[in-house]
Amino acid sequence: MAPKRTTEIDGNGYNSHDVPLNSQDRPTSPLVSVPRGPPELDLSRFQDESIITRDVCIIGGGSAGTYAAIRLRQMNHSVVLVEKEDHLGGHVNTYDDPETETAVDYGVLYYENLPVVRDYFDHFDIELEKISILEQNSTQHRVDLRTGAPVGPAEGNMLLALAAYTAQLLKYPYLNTGFNLPYPVPPDLLLPFGDFVKKYNLEGAVDIIAMFNQGAGDILKQTTLYMLKYFGLDVVQSALGGFLIPASHNNSELYGAAREELGEDVLLNSIVTYTYRNEEREYAYAVVETPSGAKVIRARKLIIAIPPRLDLLKGMDLDELERGLFGQFNNTCYYTALARIPGFPEDIQIVNRATDTVYQLPPQPAVYVINTTRAPRLFTILYGSKDHMTEAEVKGNMARSVMQLRNTGLQVEPPEFVQYADHSPFLLTVPPDAIRNGFYRHLNDLQGHRKTYYMSATLNTQASAQIWSFIDGLLHTSF
To answer: Computed over its alpha carbons, how large is the radius of gyration of the chain?
Structure first.
């Protein structure tokens, strides 16, 4: 969440994400051809030292995969965690500013104030502190970043609208963890969120929901189910009462501690090229390319902790059921950057709003906010789009938006980008008809299918705290 949340508030967004099993490319389309099966597995070509046997193999070392690895070891299961990057953390992005020796988070920023968060950090003796993001010291300026025109305050009474919104959330307690939907699915959950807002007079809450649901695309057109999941009860309570952050103000501290604890059970800079999951075999197998050569992981259970999109699962021996479900996903796209912006004041926040749209929400693709950070002269820029964009396109649009601030009287210069992260695919969704016809019931039934379990944000929500709660429940019942 933000404000790739961990709620994670990412800078906004909530979180876990890793990437493809065998590709460095970012996804561009859900309609990707996936091989029907890997080549035959020939263990004779691997030396004994290249065969790793564990109880569980976890693919993806973001928020979900790292948490699952730590919890499984606490439960006395042996694990191996495969991560394509050179570090753990997924949507957690931290820059160590050499000028000030300050750690600056520009991905996940905040965590919901929940026992699962406190317990996880306590495990590593990492101190937490509470922060209220609604009472930050910076002055908010609402600007149409297409033109630089000032935009007035949000309309309506936010607190009254939030109370009405909370009353709606309380009608659906099963949304707190996972997608355990009743049948038939309540019609209100399948409405476009803009229609849901009008039906229940929630207009005064739209602005704050938009602030927290960054990365979710056009929220008024999104299906209400996803918006209620994204901005759920725990988020509302933490928004009003305060989120948690590490006292060090460095979210990567958590993942550094996890990396140290897991030791040789983590394979960094490694990519799964094939999996072999035969119900008649005692083990599932994964062939992994690592910096020290190809290895075979032999595990009793496999956890997929990356978004289950077809283009991210190349190399997996998917069956027709898995392929049919995963092929239905659409997604939004989300990007974060850290930049020096000469002439930008240190004590303001720029919120992008529009002068000519409903609820003043800016048409996407668009910058969400420009925020100050703990390091002088460093600013985060958060950006969203429906379709995937290249790094050059995103940075170009970010720069043009920044330069519109000259029309407000700020004598800014073009941003000098220091860091950039593409958190796409972000929010994975399916159409209302698929939800109505039992999509999530079938998706949940995949847990344990062919020795495989799915534990990414897609099975719950982008908030890390919610991901961890979901994983705790699944580990308790299935491991």
So the answer is: 22
Shared domain for 289 and 412, answered yes or no, is no
On whether both 230 and 149 belong to a single domain, the answer is yes
In the chain, pLDDT over 70 holds for what percent of residues?
Answer: 91
**409 in any annotated domain:** yes
Q: Does the predicted model carry a pTM greater than 0.70?
A: yes
pLDDT tens digits along 122-161: 999 999 999 988 776 578 999 999 999 999 999 899 999 9
> Distance between CA 143 and CA 147 in Å, rounded?
8
Tokens of 392: 């050059």
Q: Identify the DSSP state of 191.
A: S
Express each pLDDT in 179-198 by its tens digit: 999 999 999 999 999 999 99
DSSP code per residue over 289-341: EETTEEEEEEEEEEEE-S---GGG-TTS---HHHHHHHTT-EE-EEEEEEEE-
| Residue 70 sits in the same domain as residue 218 | no
Residue ranges making up the domain that contains 345: 133-241+330-424
Tell me what pLDDT residue 17 has.
33
If asked whether residues 139 and 237 sit together in one domain, one would say yes
Q: Is 410 left (phi over 0), alpha (psi -120 to 50) or beta?
A: beta
Q: Which tokens belong to 343? A: 């002439």
CA dist., res. 302 & res. 315, Å (int): 14
Q: Which residues partner with 103 through β-bridges?
A: 96
Residues 224 and 338 placed together within one structural domain of the fold? yes
Annotate 58-108 with three-state secondary structure. Answer: EECCCHHHHHHHHHHHHCCCCEEEECCCCCCCCCCCEEEECCCCEEEECCC
| 384-400 pLDDT tens trace | 999 999 999 999 999 99
Q: State the residue for tokens 């019931």.
A: 441
CB contact set of 449 (below 8 Å; sequence gap of 6+): 321, 322
Number of domains in the chain: 2
Q: Is the separation of the CB atoms in 362 and 397 below 8 Å?
A: no
288: closest CA among 52, 5, 114, 74?
52
Residue 127 lies in a domain: no
Rounded to 5 degrees, φ, ψ at 143 are: -135, 140
